[in-house]
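Per reviewer request, we include the raw input and output of the structure prediction for the construct analysed in the revised manuscript.
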Amino acid sequence: MRADADDAATRKTHRIARQSIADVVSRYLASNEIAKRALTHAMRVSGATMEDLADDGLARLAPLDHVAYRSFAHEDYGVEGVCEVFERLGWTTVDASEGGRLEFTEKRVRARWLKPPKTPRGETPLPRIFVSELVVDACDEELKGYLTQHFKRVGEGKVVKSMEWASGRNARWQLPPASVYAKVERLSEYASWTLLHGYAVNHVALSLFQLRKMYPETPLRTLEDLEKSFASNAAFSRMKWNESGGRIKRSPSGLLAQSALMSVAHRYGLYKKTIVTKTRYDREEQEDIFKDYGLPGSYLEFVQRLPKPQNADKSFEELEECDLREGFETGNASKIFDSTSTRPPPPSGAGSSAPQGGAPPASNAPQGGGAPPASNAPQGGGAPPGSNAPQESNAPGSSEPAGRPAGMLMSLSSRVASFFRPSSQSPVKKPRVEEEGASASAPAANDDVIDLT
């Protein structure tokens, strides 16, 4: 009886967690058409039918190795809140002694990962969760000044709900204005990406091992097989790969291999300036000007895990996920981070964890529009595509405590709804934002970064 009860509890936990991940992946696919097409191709080549992938079938069936998020290690904005959400759903944060923490010193980033809930018999394992954070205090004074100045508006209660809420973006901070984004991007693509997307999914990773478990006759046994399959299909001829350190990144043992596509451009309306005009009655009227940009969004990764040495003699049919190389590799992950970069990759074999350098010229801007200009614009908001971010907790009128990223202190059901689904709040008028000076460590307001007029 006890075994039956345990099995029923395991299945219930797995079912709830599976639906939550399906919600996450569904939102991710809705904003990344390249990833959707690539996953569909891999599933179809392996043996899935169009009926299997209809509606939300792809989000439910795609066998994922992990789902990744980014955050800021600043006050309570970091990994703890994201980890708490998944811990409540059954994931387990891996201890540092077991390889659960990774440090990317020159990128000023650190990360943790979580193991999924126990897998019931006959079910596909759920993905790991990989959560990283930019250590703001470890950044140079210029970048730290821009970020803390932007976050300060939240701490002082100055964030006004804007159109971004209607699109499902519910980070702890507003979208940056064009000037702030351009300045931050020049110093750290990780920071600029996270300012835009908040707690949205950074990427998902397809597991080749679980793909073969689902479809034993799949021809996609290795990352090389996958690359050849895409290359032979004209629909993917323009697909861009992450070439940082080589297309396939391998751990020193050779038991963990990873490759990734470059991020796709997402459209964002960022604040540019406020125009003041006088009416015929000598009254001033002000209009906030926003501009759309195509900026780095999410991307898709592929993972091949091989058996641990003690399991090397097992047949594929005998192997289970726990028999494979577990965890993540710092060298691989550092190169995978570059999937959201707009800069040319370093030569294969060169160190890929170098600090993020200067802003690219206009010709190297992100696909679809590039970074905005650098003027000392006030903080504002636009509307990005829907994201999976937690609810903003410091906005005026918010009833949620500020101790965790939004959705982190609610009941489990509302927590899941907040974190994995977009806000349903109706659009409101874009706020008029006040002029705000740069921080003491920031460069002058007229510094040129990238000008796309």
